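User: Here's a chain of 416 residues. Predict its fold as tokens.
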Amino acid sequence: MNLRYAWVLALAGTCGVVPWAHATEPLRLQEAVARAFGANPALVADAAQLDAVRARAEREGLAPQYFVTGELENLGGTGSLSGVGSAESTLRVGRLIELGGKRAARQALGAAEIEQQQTAIRTTRIDLASRTATRFIEVAVDQQRLAFAHERVRQAERTRREVAGWVSVARNPESDLHAAEIVVANAELDREHAEHELTSARTTLAAIWGDATPDFDTVAADLTDLPEAEPLGTLLARLPDTIDQQAFAREARLAQARRRIAEASRKPDLNVNVGVRRMEGPSDQGLVMSVSMPLGSRTRAGYFIAEADAQLVAIEARRKAEQFERHQLVFEKYQELGHARTEVESLRSRVVPKAEQALAFARRGFEAGRFSFLSLAQAQTTLFDLRERLVEAYARYHILRVELDRLTATTQDTLP
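Assistant: Prediction complete.
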């Protein structure tokens, strides 16, 4: 596995790809990618298309066929030519003789079409791996959100019991109990929503390899591990060799192959026929031969060459535009990646610990009768909101890593 795809190891928590074992075991990212590669219809379609392109290349690279022609003349005329007594029969064998290297040009075009389809397959694999990783991360995030939702319900119920006890001894007003019950109800609604979101995320992930119903319950992912990205300069240096730039190169080679065919068509082909003619009256036989050649080949070829030249200019312009756009995207994603790491570090090292301390302080004050229920509820809400924000920052970092790897993937990269 290429080290550029370290996010696979970081998320999956293992260094080897193992087959999918059992539905009750957590699904790992390598397993998800392997299943997508094995069953995604897009890859099946690309493989079938490659077979079709190869067959077409073989067919178009064949030499021209021989053909046989039979003719009857002076059959069923008038006067001395009535009947079949004066009929003349001719049998010819002919073939188109290609000049100017047309067959070699067609074979070169076939090879270019095969390379283009192979590049399309590599592009599909990279996109598929990226989409699988992104959906896998979304499942992992929704799992964590559901865990937080369960914890939030537990905390809300605990607080409600405490408030009910204080209300029963008239230490707190009954309005606090109503407020605590509202908090419990909201927490339960949030938990139901989190369950729904996780179910949808699991179904979306399974759909990428064609399963309508997920056969896994959870995914194994360590969102807290943030592998370092390569330096920005290294990523930008990959752009001229990315899979998308290679696709433009294959498209240009295809246009060049068509141009060579057009150049070869400047030289007209010869249609040669050789045969035997039999005179029915005297019963004599004679050899016949004909040669034909089309006119105006150079003019027609000139239009095809002009078309190919224009296509080459357009391909090069689109290639440069794509490279400029990709440069901007990589720069933008890299900046966002740095911001996501900064946010994670700030939240988990400073902000969340302070919120935990604030909640502990608020709970002690509430139990001592110095703080109101609203102060405790606010501290709980703040902590859970910050924890969810931290999970979102983890997810954003990992998804940005996946996007950066996709944007800078080259044909030399090895996918998991």
